[in-house]
Amino acid sequence: MRAPKDGALEPAHILQDLAQWIPELDQLADYSVEVVANVDSSQIKPDLWLTLARRIERSVEASDCDGIVVLHGTDTMGFTASALSYLLPGLSLPVVLTGGQRPLAEPRTDARNNVLGAIETALHGPKEVLVFFNNLVFRGNRSSKTAIGDFDGFSSPNFPELGRAGISWEWNKSLFWPETRRPSVFQPIPDVLPSAPWVIPWVPGLDFSGLQPALANQWAIILEAFGTGNLPVDEGLSEALSGYVADGGMVFIRSQVPRGSIKLGTYRPGRALLEMGARDGLDMTREAMVTKLMVLKGYGLGRQKIGHMVGRNLVGELTEPQP
Predict the structure, then answer these.
(1) Residue 194 has pLDDT above 80, yes or no
(2) What Gene3D superfamilies does UniProt report for this protein, alphabetically (predicted)?
């Protein structure tokens, strides 16, 4: 990003900026740059995830690099990282997303250090989709943007970081995703992805009946519940959700609380949701859950199969409950 005369940030000329502002890149690696898209990350749509995944796949298959860095705006980086983790399972090299809270050309920018760290991660890190931000390496589908006004812009609420850049690198190698674990359902990259499921954060006093007519055109909804999965399950909500499921819709529940795993059967309201046909998202981030559902449907899976797969740990995106 760069700030023009009117002060509004806009996408930068990346080739020129990298050479100008990070000249020591040449000391780290031999690299080439390709512009897949140059847009504000708030404008990214699912078709760009597919384009990016296919371009990465070609480089991986050609074996023409040791790692790949994706420079990405921070607003939707967690969504892109999660989507790529499902679209590119079983990677043979690291794919690292990074960006900055301040533009590369700005004083005190964090983007410069993030780019350098991402390149080192791409050379030496685990072979999966990652996010490098402020000296920490996160699994891509476990990361979320959790801060606006400081450089700790990203965190991994329910999974430890995979690496840390200090004077020397520290790696949590026991947490790396095994390269051999490639879910057969995720191949090849689908031609299209469906629209995103509706995400509805529940608040006290929400009149769900007002949303019911609009649900008819939605293939899935994610209700963000209180705590371990509680909603005020009154007659109106029960009737609306039961009817929606009976008509072919899918209902998924995740918690509004960033840390911890949802347990729908813990309290009576959560148990009632299970009886209506709802499925829980365990400890997935919003980004991981939304993109997982989209990719599963993009592969042509039916409602029953999606409902089963959403609770399985496919590419490191969730913690399966112990039996």
Answers:
(1) yes
(2) 3.40.50.40, L-asparaginase, N-terminal domain
CATH code given to domain 14-175: 3.40.50.1170
Q: Is 184 annotated as a binding residue?
A: no
Q: What is the rounded average pLDDT of the residues 72-87?
A: 97
Annotated active-site residue 74? The verdict is yes
Residue 285 annotated in ligand binding: no
Nearest alpha carbon to residue 174 among 158, 160, 186: 160
CATH among 3.30.1330.10, 3.40.50.40, 3.30.450.20, 2.40.128.20 for 198-309: 3.40.50.40
Q: Is 156 known as a binding-site position?
A: no
Return residue ranges of the chain for CATH 3.40.50.1170.
Answer: 14-175
d(CA 205, CA 19) in angstroms, rounded, equals 54
Long-range contacts of 198-201 (CB under 8 A, 24+ apart): 198/222, 199/224, 199/286, 199/290, 200/224, 201/256
Rounded-to-integer distance, Cα 175 and Cα 290, Å = 24
The pLDDT assigned to 8 comes to: 44
Q: For residue 266, name the pLDDT band (cuts at 50, 70, 90).
A: confident
Q: Could you give the residue range(s) of every CATH 3.40.50.40 domain in the chain? A: 198-309
Q: What's the rounded Cα separation, in Å, for the pair 57 and 182? A: 14
* Options 51, 74, 228, 285, the catalytic residue: 74
Q: State pTM to two decimals.
A: 0.93
